[in-house]
Amino acid sequence: MLELAKKKYPVIREVVDRQHALEVFESRSEPYKVKIIEDIPPGEPIGLYHHEEYVDMCRGPHVTNTKHLKAFKLTKISGAYWKGDSKNEMLQRIYGTAWKNKKDLKDYLERLKEAEKRDHRKLGRSLELFHFQEEAPGMPFWHPNGKTIFTQIENYLREQQIQKGYQEIHTPSILDISLWKKSGHTEKFDQGMFKTESESREYVVKPMNCPGHVQVFNQGLKSYKDLPLRLSEFGSCTRDEPSGTLHGLMRVRSFVCDDAHIFCTKDQVASEVSDFIDMVFEIYRDFGFKNVELKMATRPEKRVGNDAVWDESESALEDVLNNKKLDWVKLPGEGAFYGPKIEFNLRDSLNRVWQCGTIQIDFSMPERLGAKYVNEHGNRQTPVMLHRATLGSFERFIGILIEHYAGALPVWLSPIQAVVLNITDKQSKYSSKVRDSLRKSGFRVESDLRNEKITYKIRHHSVRKVPYLLVVGEKETKKDLVSVRARGAEDLGVMSVENFSSILSKDIESKK
Amino acid sequence: MPLITLPDKTKKEIKDPLSIEELASELSTGLGRSVIAGKVNGILVDASEKIYKDCRVQILTSEDARNWSCHRRWLLL
Question: What is this structure's pTM?
């Protein structure tokens, strides 16, 4: 590799047709590439990369010269079955990374090491939050600890939404395909939908909640006085993502979306969008994310609705962003098929960017699904629909939280907030009493009464990243006290259960 | 002569055809040395890709690679 980088030879791309590519690799006796070409649909151009005497085949892009590869490291060698099937031959795969200079390479490797330590899939196992298994690709099984985090987030968001005038609903998981045809999803999103049938009717497992929410809006005649109507749902969605793109909680097939749809008049769009932006910033701050970047995605090639409507909605979003004096970036062509959107990206502790929240203007779907309200003049009019989510997918957001905090979640989100540890059997009754009294106050507390050395028990629960450990010995039992150790081996001393309760309450309230 | 739009919204008329690499060198010698790939209308392409018509162009260097960790597409054929 060093020699090749030193040579600074050019890597030349050549686009060829299938026949030519087949001839090249047959003459070079490279049967695997021949097999890959046979699977590529005819007519699709194939990219060859010439490395001196060697020919590679790839979609690219590749650097144009090996001079870019001077600062590199080969990171891993692993066996890989041909096409990922253990019945096939084993091939060898070599992984490596290359950077502009040695410093950048070193930085990257350090970040990689840090990211590995924080990998939510690893922490998900060790903290007993969730698991995946072969029979449910991309669909997590939430264990009690993980489900607790899930519920805390849901309760918090519900409270936020109630304060901001949202009303919660719940809609069916499968709906007749005719509705998805009307909404435009079968046309624009067909690849992403799981379908099922019963009694010769075809159904779609909902990939999103919007058509269901319009059905709720459509019940009973709405007046302009009912608008804006904000309907929210913690809606389970299922999408048929290609199995190769699945990645832990970050890219899943089934997820819960903190979804809501705001039905409003055109005049209300700006203030609704503006309020929502404030709400997102507040929520992200509460979860400990201070760096939020805004992007606005405009009309894609595959879309519904005429250009005048797109002009109007794109400029509405731009105006809100500019009036709030926010920094934002335009993403041309990346809007939803029904309307432009604002995307909220947050930066985590490793400075990685994650797209989470979104608000999207939709003039099309309410019309397609027959939503109407009676305006001030007594005429029927189609409302505007704003699709919005603050976290996006709960699964993905929890994955981000786990990696951001390296598993040591803030107290208000921690599945277990404190564990009571007895030193000897004599304090087991008192330990249980402390645990029960804290539970009664609404805290998530466990006790560890195992007949193990106290140092062992402390280590065990520190690895589980429990925020507080309450050690109880003879002295504490006699005086009705607990000895408190905070996460990170900080000794807070001996105190009454009431005093410890108020520490916990303060942490929870301040979202610490 | 194709009209290209750079990420900072500046527009530039270029000789036809010009590769991303050549464009980077024209903009600055430093950029010409560090360009590793490009984006044309949002699609990732080789630095050797030639531009024939009006489009949006982004020149990518290893600085951009720092932000790629979340959406890599390596090992794709």
Answer: 0.79
